[in-house]
Amino acid sequence: MQHEAITEIQAAQTLDDLQGVKTRYVGKSGLVTKELGTLGRLPPEERKARGAEINAVRQAIDAALTEREGVLKRAALDAKLSSEAIDVTLPGLGLPSGGLHPINRVYDELIGIYERLGYAVVEGPEVEDEHYNFEALNVPWYHPARDLQDTFWLEDGRLLRTHTSPMQIRYMVEHEPALKVVVRGKVYRYEATDATHESMFHQLEGLVVGEGISMADLKGTIAEMARGLYGASAKVRFQPSYYPFVEPGADFAVWWENPRGESKWLELGGCGMIHPNVFKAVDDLREAQGKARVYEGQTGFAFGLGPERIAMLKYGVPDIRYFYANDPRVLGQFRGELG
Ligand code: FA5
Fold this sequence. Notes:
Elements: H1 2-11, H2 15-26, H3 31-37, H4 44-84, H5 102-116, E1 120-122, E2 127-128, H6 130-133, E3 159-160, H7 166-174, E4 179-188, E5 200-209, H8 215-230, E6 236-241, E7 246-257, E8 263-274, H9 276-288, E9 300-305, H10 307-315, H11 328-331
Helix pairs in contact: 1-4, 2-4, 5-8, 5-10, 7-9
Bound molecules: adenosine-5'-[phenylalaninyl-phosphate] (FA5).
Adenosine-5'-[phenylalaninyl-phosphate] is lined by residues 149, 163, 165, 189, 191, 197-198, 201, 203, 205, 243, 246, 249, 267-272, 302-306, 308-309, 320.
Protein name: Phenylalanine--tRNA ligase alpha subunit
Domain Aminoacyl-transfer RNA synthetases class-II family profile: 115-328
Organism: Deinococcus koreensis
């Protein structure tokens, strides 16, 4: 009987099966229990030995039951856990999210304005030839304006572009008029940094060339940008200024008001009508590449501005260096939303 019982116990595949075996052998009216009940009918001299025998069987069965129960319980728990591991209804754990850098947010806003006005958007090389960064922009080597943009020179004679204006040249060499384009990208200047000057910063350059383009178009375009940034009542100011690649040249500022009631003229950048020498330099480059001279006699305007200035005011960042110090206390404030 012990042998059968233990074979059945080990064959039990579920706790329910095992319970059945247990009832059959050691339950109230189980086989072992019944056997114990027959002891009283035995002669007293046999009773003790028979009792010990049945008890030994019972203990062996109990031990086998306990062991098998442990095995089946563990198996049931494992099955439960592994089915829970793929419970697709559980809420996710959430991932730490990044966010767009404040300068990219301002860029996206500015570029959105120009895309709506039909401008192409390009970037360009940060390592630039001297000819594109200076000469072709009417800044010969002896020109004092070179000192205004102190330059990082590379050992091979090239440089890190000091502004995005060389892309005016590159774009015109590749495209014929009429054209409207904005350039985004990093620029570099070898200068002492302070709260409003970095040695690496960004510019947005605009270039428009076409028949009859005038200073009025330039002013209208900057005013449209200001309205895009600061709403219908935005004001713009132009002051005469000098850049070798434009004539006449101007600096422009936008009247900036914020909800805290602060307001001021925000000096944004420079602009002007393309200098004839620039068109000539473009045609020379085109000719050297076997392309037609199509720029002499054209008119157009260009402008260049620094998005950092806009971002500092928009987000209340008091020092331009905070943008590039990779301090999570600053950039962490721009996590999450992408706008
Ligand atoms: C220029 O770089 C001209 N290429 C702009 C231009 C383009 C004029 C087309 C006419 C026609 P400027 O050096 O002023 O100009 O720089 C333009 C803007 O870049 C400045 O108004 C300012 O917003 C930003 N800027 C200049 N230097 C720094 C700097 N060190 N750190 C942060 N922003 C700067």
